[in-house]
Amino acid sequence: MTAETGRWIRNFVDGVFVEPDEDRGFDKVDPATGLVFARVHEADSSLVDRAVAGARRALDEGWARTPVRERADLLRRAADRIEERFEEFVAAEIADTGKPVTQARELDVARAVANFRSFADVVAAAGQESFLTDLAGGRQALNYAVRKPLGVVAVIVPWNLPLLLLTWKVAPALACGNAIVVKPSEETPATATLLAEVLAEVGLPAGAYNVVHGFGGDSAGEYLTSHPGIDGVTFTGSSATGSHVMKTVAPRVRPVSFELGGKNAAIVFDDVDLDEALTGLTKSVFTNTGQVCLCTERVYVQRSVFADIADGLAERARRLRLDRPTDERTTTGPLISQQHRNKVLGYFELAEQAGAKVLTGGGIPQLGPELAGGSWIEPTLWTGLTNADRAVREEIFGPVAALIPFDTEAEAIALANDTDYGLAASVWTNDLRRGHRVAQAMNVGMAWVNTWFLRDLRSPFGGVGLSGIGREGGASSLHFYTEPTNVCVQL
Q: Considering the chain, what percentage of its residues have pLDDT values greater than 70?
């Protein structure tokens, strides 16, 4: 246990919290201060076995056959209970990530509530296709599909939006009658564990939701994805890790849903409302300290307004407030870890070597002794780079973007699509015909016009290329978390 709090973050397996093994623990560090605030119990392979077995037993003992209405009601109770314990979730999210309290309240925890309610509505309203087939002699056959739970699902979530992305997967998986084993990031274990308390409180059967803590290789992540009792894997994280998970499940041909990295583009045309574009770009580049898979790292600006956008965005970046996460005035938190900050700083060096001009940022801020040990970094903007430079081609995942000029619509589309990734893009223009045209030309899973991060939870979410496989959201989630059986009856 830690001297600071004496607190353990425990695994939750088959309906109970497991007492930690003192020899299998690792420190959880506050990203804002660099101080240890808890010890996390690392699951070994036998504990992962118990979690998978508990999940299978929950299915066999009736959870998979629970009527849809009862499952939807349980999701709504979970949403209500999260609201009742709202500030506990906010505190856990801040401790895990160091993000500002306003974001934790207005985005992360609020979306967790919305995820449960949205998927309760989706599953309650979902229908089934049926077909009448004409046969010889005037007879017919009726074909209809029955959807059954996928089974035991491994849910692996990242550290950037840990509660939001966890509930984005857990809510539809439970709505469809699956049992779940969650492996949260080792950087952000708290909210997945707190959610276990909530789901137990609202009556989810033991074993239907399990949490195992640990790392990737030779730890809980690998034990889980390679486990023969897992029927499917849903993963959000880096493209490299997604590729490794795919190799792991390939011999057993298990279905996967991957939302991976992004190197997202924004295209700004010269007819745009400058203030509206600058407000949107400030959000899309710097939200969550740039640690969102949908964040913009490449900004292509029509040459006639390039100076206006560059100067305006730099000025707004300089106005961002980096301070204690619990301060209501704070707009920008730290990066998740010192290791990740070193990665981002490495790209700062690469950009400098490639001839980048730093408009603002480019280093580590001085925030006083209380925050000196945190993983802080300055919001940063560059000009002078091209699509050939590594800092423009590779995902950085920090509060940084390169601004690059263009002249024609065709050039902008070619530049934006010149990437191995394909998650999201945004188009900024007052010509809505052009907005539709350019958005549809983007090789991405999601394209916004004159906005960013605006989501209808019923719409499909996912990417192409190195950005992932499959879609989640609304009916797309129901399709992944279920398997259809077609029934054909000759009438």
A: 99
End-to-end CA distance of the chain: give it in Å, rounded.
68
Which conformational region is residue 400 in: left (phi greater than 0), alpha (psi within -120 to 50 degrees), or beta?
beta
Query: Cα(50)–Cα(56) distance, rounded to whole angstroms?
Result: 10
Distance CA 491, CA 489 (A): 6
Query: Residue 61: its pLDDT value, please?
Result: 96
Beta strands 140-149 and 152-156, pairing class: unpaired
Structure tokens at 48: 């992962």
For position 1, what pLDDT does the model report? 33
Kindly state the average pLDDT of the residues 43-64.
97
Tokens found for residue 24: 């299998």
Other Cβ atoms less than 10 A from the Cβ of 217: the count is 8
Q: What is the largest CA-CA distance in the chain?
A: 87
Average pLDDT over residues 463-470: 96
Which pLDDT value is given to residue 332? 98
pLDDT one-digit tens code per residue, 87-138: 999 999 999 999 999 999 999 999 999 999 999 999 999 988 899 999 999 9
Query: How many Å apart are CA 340 and CA 466, to the nearest integer?
Result: 20
Average pLDDT of span 275-303: 98
- Radius of gyration of the chain from its Cα atoms, rounded to whole angstroms: 23
| CA dihedral sign, ordered 96, 6, 82, 55 | positive
For residues 74 and 125, is the Cβ–Cβ distance under 8 A? no
CA nearest neighbour of 175 among 230, 235, 121: 121
d(CA 318, CA 322): 10
Count other Cβ atoms within 10 Å, centred on residue 337.
18
Measured CA to CA, the distance from residue 167 to residue 211 in angstroms comes to 13
pLDDT for position 469: 94
Q: Under 8 Å CB-to-CB from 152, ≥6 apart: which residues?
A: 52, 55, 56, 59, 178, 179, 180, 181, 229, 230, 231
Task: Give strand ranges (E) for 30-129.
Answer: 36-41
- Which residue numbers are catalytic? 259, 293
- Asked whether 267 and 428 are in contact (CB, 8 A), the reply is yes
